[in-house]
Specification:
It holds the Pfam family Polysacc_deac_1. The chain is mainly α. The protein has helices spanning about 5-10, 100-105, 130-135, 135-140, 190-210, 225-235, 255-260, 265-280, 295-310, 320-325, and strands at about 160-165, 215, 235-240, 285, 315-320.
């Protein structure tokens, strides 16, 4: 995780589409661009890599420990977070798997049928032709867009956009989801590494916000049945983004603008094409966008959101939880009122969110639930109701 995200909120760090460079952080390195004056959104032609940056906005409100939150059933705000590097794994690196925390989190997989799939070479199709050839059986999204009934890929109502932004943090009433610690391709990791990636991020969010997400998004959308099963065993439902029947992705490519690969004008043209596709599909949709960079925020605030609102017919914009008619409280373990959402842990141990050996959450006697089976369902339809990511 990036330092600014870790110290501010520990939230989503930016799922991206798989690209030839295979790394959205692979930016051109150069002298920082000159600062811009004012706060107006630049013309679309000016939104490109190297554009002048503006000063960060001033914090407009602070909140005290113990204050109530607007989510029914959620605990009050925790003690303010003070980052100490000694308490956390190295940022932007896969966490060690020999820690006491990971040992505790691995217990959450007990009783679940985790598919015995070998990790991919690097999460790409071109470098793992054997796995790519078996992508349909593996449920590998990267190679062919294969999804399962547990994946969240669209809002159910036509012309409804479940608005989400990877990266964060932002202070305005967003729904929060896990997006891993180091932003690596999860299919290329071992079971223990996947657990560490999800566990540490989940722990960080709970430490800062006092709540634990019940959803996650895999970096680059790189997920298969093994990654799904581990995520669900840890109580997190995967969130993807929409694809058209012919494989077109609802990806704005805004991350490519920040990486110097395309211009803002190119990205906006991609988004306009997305809106055209969204007008003809039978469901709503989820789009891949980011807010870690000023460039991507300018694109969203100045262009993409307005384009959707002024489109004919106009789109209805909602957070993904709202567009799915999911109670906001159900997006977090502490306030979840749905006994079968997500897939509850049935082991005696329950969930140890902090990895300290103390059970934080259990469902039913012995952690079991009548609606749960040992095998996590992965063979359902590809379009389900959307639940949660970071949103406006």
């Amino acid at each position: 995780m990036r330092t600014q995200s870790l110290t501010a909120l520990f939230v989503l760090l930016g799922a991206t589409n798989v690209h030839a460079i295979n790394n959205r952080h692979a930016h051109k390195r150069q002298t920082p661009p000159p600062a811009a004056s004012g706060t107006a959104i630049p013309p679309i032609e000016s939104i490109t890599f190297g554009m002048p940056t503006k000063s960060a906005p001033t914090v407009t409100a602070t909140f005290s420990p113990g204050e109530a939150v607007p989510v029914s059933g959620a605990p009050p705000l925790p003690t303010p977070f003070i980052f100490s590097p000694a308490d956390w794994p190295e940022q932007d690196h896969i966490p060690p798997t020999d820690s006491d925390e990971v040992t505790q989190w691995m217990k959450e997989l007990d009783g679940f049928d985790i598919p015995n799939l070998n990790p991919t070479v690097d999460g790409s199709c071109v470098n793992d032709t054997a796995a790519a050839a078996d992508a349909a059986n593996r449920g590998w999204w990267t190679c062919g867009g294969h999804t399962r009934g547990t994946d969240i890929v669209a809002c159910p109502d036509k012309l409804t956009w479940g608005v989400s932004f990877d990266d964060g943090p932002s202070p305005y009433s967003h729904e929060i989801s896990v997006h891993t610690w180091s932003h690596k391709h999860l299919t290329a990791l071992t079971n223990e590494q996947i657990v560490a990636e999800l566990g540490w991020t989940r722990h960080a969010i709970r430490t800062v916000l006092g709540v634990t997400p019940t959803t996650m998004r895999p970096p680059y959308g790189d997920i298969d049945d093994r990654v799904r099963a581990i995520s669900l065993a840890m109580g997190m439902i995967p969130i993807m983004w929409t694809r058209t029947p012919d494989g077109g992705q609802f990806d704005t490519n805004d991350w490519k603008v920040a990486g110097g690969l395309v211009t803002g004008k190119d990205s906006f043209a991609t988004f306009q094409n997305i809106l055209s596709n969204a007008s003809v599909i039978d469901t709503g949709f989820i789009v891949l966008q980011h807010d870690l960079y000023e460039i991507t925020v300018d694109l969203a605030i100045g262009y993409t959101l307005n384009a959707a609102l002024t489109h004919s017919p106009p789109f209805i914009l909602k957070p993904i939880g709202q567009c799915s008619n999911t109670l906001t409280g159900n997006l977090y373990f502490e306030s979840n009122q749905n006994a079968t959402f997500p897939y509850t842990n049935q082991t005696e141990g329950g969930y140890d969110f902090d990895g300290d050996g103390v059970v934080d959450f259990k469902t039913g006697k012995g952690g079991s639930n009548a609606g749960f089976t040992h095998s996590i369902p992965t063979l359902g339809v590809t379009l389900l109701v959307a639940i949660a990511v970071i949103m406006v």
